[in-house]
Amino acid sequence: MAEQRPGVKALVEQALSVLPQELGCDSCADYLAAYADYRLGGRTPPDSLKGVGEHLDRCEACLEEFKLLLDAVQGARDSLGGQHDL
Q: Helix %, strand %, coil % for the chain, to 5?
């Protein structure tokens, strides 16, 4: 068997560690915008988005994507002069 790089091995192990009731990366990505809307608004996300937060707690790749999304939305809001409705 070919030797894997440590990062690839960790990514594979992380993907295989998702339990059936947990969100995977693809499902998490589907809800990132809604989750970001709650977080940027200073509101607690509803229980229906709880899995997104749990996934972000354990998935570095999705957390990085989420941070980029937050930065982009905040930058767009700032450029509109503080308006919060995009």
A: 70, 0, 30
Q: Tokens 């998702």, residue?
A: 18
CB 24 within 8 A of CB 15: yes
H-helix or E-strand spanning residue 24:
none
pTM of the model: 0.66
Select the more confidently predicted residue: 75 or 16. Answer: 75
C-alpha dist (Å) from residue 47 to 8, 22, 25, 41, 44: 32, 13, 18, 16, 9
What ranges do the domains of the chain cover?
23-79
